[in-house]
Design a protein that fits this description.
The chain crosses the membrane at residues 13-34, 165-184. By secondary structure, this protein is an alpha+beta fold. The chain is 61% helix and 15% strand. Among the domains are: 9-186, no CATH class; 319-455, Histidine kinase-like ATPase, C-terminal domain (Heat Shock Protein 90, 2-Layer Sandwich), CATH 3.30.565.10. The protein is rod-shaped.
Length: 461
């Protein structure tokens, strides 16, 4: 399944702010270029009007003085104070003929505008447009005063101004991104606390609580989070209590069944063995041919009694409260080593002191180990089973490793594993059952010894 790439929220928002800022800079630059183009056209229109007025005055002076010297048109006087680099002043006659033209040279610049900017500017604007004003004297049109600017000069000026904006953008945009990212990191710092709280909830720590936040939106999330954690804690506590009662009822039923089997079935088997022995004595005297049948009945009764002893041991284990957890588990392992006759080797190791362990935890740990050994020996077909029980400051850890078949469905989803999960859940612990690193299966059980009260996530992320 294709997964979309995930971006950090701060990075995503910073990129969006940068994109919006760049768009704003582009809009400002476009507005500036449009304004500058309009100002340039207004300026050449104004110069054209000045040139036309000056030429009208020159022609009027010629007529007023009746001077035979023809100094019209003369663009030198007006060029002295209106000329700028790239500007051209032209007087065009009524027939369209260029009578006089005066242009200033374009300045030599070290950096010419890029071709892409030149093409863009020429496509968007008309830098070579002329401004013409008629020269009229006494109602007679003498010609036109034409003013124009070299397109290369106007494009270079626009690029110079745009370059200043681009330089400002290059400096301001990274600085803005840094400031926005820092502000977002500070504003979104509580999301780390929320993420940490959710991780603790997912790990089964329902004591996680979120502290108050400054933002109203995060405060609403905090209230819902804490309410959900409290509801889950209450629901799991009720479920654990119900599970404990069910397990206690199940254990009581097992003890009752064990008593019934011992009192009724055990006595019946003992009676059958006694009758078989008596019948053998009678057959030995009167009918020797029946000795084999009598011995067969006795062997069957003995096998059934051996099976009954194993069932009674599983139904009614030794009193863990009286013997202690360590002695009970050592006896359980020794019993499995004896019954397996060397086919499976069971070992156990203890780390810590278990005398002060509560009776409920001891009894459930014994049942968990009992079910785990049954799964490893009967379902997984293991030849080596290693148990390790360790006591820590605030929890007790059980590790069971075997070299059996880790993919056996009966070992993973059988009633034994379900019973172990129920007992671990009743003790508010954690259970994992996975394939071992060297093959086989690895069972891990962690049971807290004391539940701490609700704790808020006060540390800063």
């Amino acid at each position: 399944m294709w997964n979309r790439p995930r971006f950090d929220l701060k990075v995503r928002l910073t990129l969006r702010v940068a994109a919006v800022s760049a768009a704003c800079f582009a809009a400002i630059s476009a507005y500036f270029l449009i304004t500058a183009d309009r100002a340039a056209h207004a300026r050449i229109d104004e110069i054209a009007a000045i040139v036309a007025k000056t030429l009208e005055l020159q022609q009027g002076k010629v007529l007023w003085t009746a001077s035979p010297r023809a100094d019209f048109p003369n663009l030198d006087p007006v060029s002295a104070y209106v000329m700028t680099p790239g500007l051209c002043l032209t007087f065009r006659g009524t027939n369209g003929e260029m009578i006089q033209r005066f242009c200033s040279g374009a300045p030599v610049t070290a950096d010419s505008p890029p071709q892409i900017f030149t093409a863009f500017y020429h496509g968007l604007f008309d830098p070579g447009r002329e401004a013409a004003r008629p020269v009229i004297l006494r109602g007679i049109k003498l010609g036109e005063a034409v003013v124009s600017v070299d397109p290369a000069v106007q494009t270079a000026e626009a690029w110079h101004e745009a370059g200043r904006l681009m330089l400002a953008l290059a400096i301001a945009l990274p600085l803005l991104c840094v400031l926005v990212y820092a502000a977002l990191a500070r504003a979104l710092r509580p999301t780390r606390l929320i993420s940490t709280g959710l991780a603790r909830i997912a790990a089964g720590d329902l004591t996680a609580r979120l502290p108050p936040f400054d933002l109203a939106e995060l405060t609403a999330v905090r209230d819902v989070f804490n309410h959900l954690a409290e509801s889950l804690d209450t629901a799991l506590a009720e479920r654990a209590e119900l599970t404990r009662k069910l397990i206690a009822l199940q254990d009581e039923e097992r003890r009752h069944l064990a008593r019934e089997l011992h009192d009724e079935f055990g006595q019946s088997l003992a009676a059958i063995r006694a009758l078989a022995a008596s019948a053998r004595q009678t057959a030995a005297q009167e009918c020797p041919s029946l000795l084999g049948e009598c011995d067969g009945i006795a062997r069957t009764a003995s096998g059934m009694m051996e099976t009954l002893r194993g069932a009674l041991f599983r139904l009614r284990p030794p009193d863990v409260e009286e013997l202690g957890l360590v002695a009970s588990l050592e006896g359980l392992v020794a019993g499995w080593n004896g019954r397996s006759r060397g086919e499976t080797r069971f070992t156990i190791r203890f780390d810590g002191t278990f005398e002060t362990l509560p009776a409920t935890i001891s009894a459930n740990l014994y049942r968990i180990v009992q079910e785990a050994l049954t799964n490893a020996a009967k379902h997984a077909g293991a030849t080596k089973v290693n148990l390790e029980l360790a006591m820590h400051a605030d929890e007790i850890a059980l590790a069971i490793d075997d070299d059996g078949r880790s993919t056996d469905p009966a070992a993973k989803s059988g009633m034994g594993l379900l019973g172990m999960r129920e007992r671990v859940a009743a003790l508010r612990g954690r259970l994992s059952f996975e394939a071992g690193p060297q093959g086989g299966s690895a069972l891990r059980v962690v049971i807290p010894l004391a539940s701490s009260g609700p704790q808020a996530l006060e540390h800063a992320a």
